[in-house]
Amino acid sequence: DAKTTQPPSMDCAEGRAANLPCNHSTISGNEYVYWYRQIHSQGPQYIIHGLKNNETNEMASLIITEDRKSSTLILPHATLRDTAVYYCIVRVAYTGFQKLVFGTGTRLLVSP
Amino acid sequence: ETGVTQSPTHLIKTRGQQVTLRCSSQSGHNTVSWYQQALGQGPQFIFQYYREEENGRGNFPPRFSGLQFPNYSSELNVNALELDDSALYLCASSSHGTLPGGNYGYTFGSGTRLTVV
Predict the structure, then answer these.
(1) SS3 A32
(2) Measuring CA to CA, how many Å separate B103 from each of A11, A32, A53, A69, A80?
(3) What's the angle, vertex CA B113, arms to CA A35 and CA B56, rounded to 5?
(4) Displacement of CA A40 from its chain's centroid (Å)
(5) Residues near A23 by beta carbon (within 8 Å), at least 6 away in sequence
(6) Which residues in chain B have Cβ-Cβ distances shorter than 8 Å to A103?
(7) SS3 sequence, A41-84?
(8) I want to staple B24 with a disulfide (CB 3.0 to 4.6 A). Which of A66, A88, B5, B15 is the partner?
(9) What are the tens digits of pLDDT across the range B20-74?
């Protein structure tokens, strides 16, 4: 399975942009990159996903390199409520089903 | 639109016992996946159910089994519990089939915290 590598922790000042990197050098051509976050061992919350092109929604932006071996999640104006563990995930497809392959995540701490 | 509901939220069992965890999928979703999340780690895929059958499985032994019902809800059963089965068990629902842009939206429940003593 494709594997993701993330820094274990990052800090960000409130109001600044948080840029969370992820390496997925073994990703295959049809495998999507997803980002979820998890707060206090609740269920993971969807943030954004993409295949090749950069994506933006109301929560974040996803920048995927041209060779697709890495990506960056950008939270444009971090707030205290963005403190969470952020998972970079590859969706792996098999015959008849797909599964999400999680990495170990980045613990983002947003401080005042 | 209702989200994914899991029950119970917490559970304590003794080694060797059996446990059943339940999950109600999000409205409009027909596929349920189960994940195990050990403390400090990312979730690991257990299996997926679609049309009331298991159609994909991760690296988990046969004592982990499941069911899906006609209303798309699901159960996870674990027999002969071991101490290492202590974890947060997450259910994720999704819609099987190709959606525009290949979007498979996964909605997770809040999980069941299982402690085996």
Answers:
(1) strand
(2) 31, 9, 14, 20, 30
(3) 55
(4) 17
(5) A4, A5, A6, A69, A70
(6) 42
(7) CCCCEEEEEECCCCEECCCCEEEECCCCCEEEEEECCCCHHHCE
(8) B5
(9) 999 999 988 889 999 999 998 999 999 999 999 999 999 999 999 999 999 999 9
How many angstroms away from the CA of A77 is the closest CA of chain B? 25
Smallest Cα–Cα separation from A49: which of A37, A40, A67, A66? A37
pLDDT tens-digit readout, B27-41:
888 899 999 999 989
Q: What is the largest CA-CA distance in chain A?
A: 48
Let me know if B2 is exposed, middle or buried by CB neighbors in 10 A (0-12, 13-18, 19+). exposed
Look up residue B29 and give its amino acid: H
Compute the distance between CA of residue B39 and CA of residue A41 in angstroms, rounded to an integer. Answer: 9
Give the span between the Cα atoms of A92 and A61, in whole angstroms.
Answer: 22
3-state secondary structure (DSSP) of residue B100 = helix
